[in-house]
Amino acid sequence: MTKDIKAQPAPEHLVSKFKLQTSKEVDFFLPINKGNAKVGHAKELNTETPKLFQPLEIIPGFTLSNRIGVSPMCTYSSPSTGSEIGNPTKFHQTHYGSFALRGSGLIIVESSAVAPNGRLSPEDAGIWNDEQAKAWKSIVQFAHSQGVKIGIQLGHGGRKASGIPPADHLQFGIDSSLGGWSDVKGAVVAPSALPFNPDPEVNLQGYVTPTALTTDQVKETVELFGAAAKRAYEIAGFDFVEIHGAHGYLINEFLSASSNKRTDQYGGSFENRIRFLLEIVDAVKSETHPTFLRISADELTPSDPDAWTIEDSVKLAHVLVQHGGVHVIDVSSGANNPHAERRPSHQGFQVPYAKALKAAVGDKIQIAAVGGFVDGEFANKVVENGEADIVLVGKSLLKNPGLPWVWADQLGVKINVGRPFEWPYYHPAWKF
User: Fold this and answer.
1) Which tens digit of pLDDT belongs to each residue from 97-130?
2) Domain count, the chain
3) Residue 81 included in any domain
4) One short Pfam family name for this protein (predicted)?
5) What is the pTM of this model?
6) Whose CA is closest to 39, among 370, 394, 401?
7) What is the extent of the structural domain holding 130?
């Protein structure tokens, strides 16, 4: 005869040990990670821990769990009209949440416009109003529930605004019949009235000739970046902002003598051409949050004597060290000249640019490398060799959001991941 077994109250020490606690960062039930462990942090740190999985302090009070970050990648998935124009949606929550659970040390969300006419396409995300900032908040909170640092890239498309998303057609400007604004007088702006691509055979109708910003409009645009950063911090709760100064967009257009033919204080000399950027740095800087800056280190157009080069970027890096306000330089290249040399696509193809800037700034500014990372050992060598401090990954993370976890296994490191995912891999009962 089977003896009845009656439930007994669990001992208090077991209740405190096993009762699931929910995260206070989100408004739904989400078990907190054991010991409030930060996702991406190595479970054991010692002198043998590969540098890729060692924490990195950017500023006091701001430390990354590891050196792997999600590179900002536009998804072109925000509403283009109505009261929710430019808002992130549930898609964005799912998209960025997948990275927050699986080992990335930081997340940089996609380029978000500081003004409606600064969107690259009608479907771009934005942060030019408070409602958009509020919509980002739940995404930020989820990342924080996993102990992951998350920031937003602030952008303005300049002469490359009002385009069709690259998923449909790369580098094709659109008018109001397709939701764009290229036919609205003065809506597409740039340092100078020079179109991105005047060759219709290369680019169909290409982009329209932009309207050159007046000096007062330049200053107003600086203020737009500052206001966007304030929303990012005070409403959305982001940990940092990244200034998008690359890929042929507005700031990049000011930097390059190829696209900047101004004769006022924002054009001509190197010092004048970088003025717009430096004023934006001052407008967005915070005492408690670091500022990231993405640049195109080289325009890849050696045939153009006015093109921005790696030598210009090194010179800019020295200026930024003296000027202050930038804590991480995110180093990419190209996209300001439609006739630029085609970039290679092998792993680490842009690391030499990061290496050059790292040699210039030393430890005074952290350097992030981008460009086709697929292998953990290769990525670790980049940081071990001092070529960069951070590795930012894009397409490979789209294919596998758990890539940092894969790299950790490859390098023999156990890292924290989201509690719902961790136990099948690390619980003793499942070791087979």
Assistant:
1) 999 999 999 999 999 999 999 999 999 999 999 9
2) 1
3) yes
4) Oxidored_FMN
5) 0.95
6) 401
7) 53-427
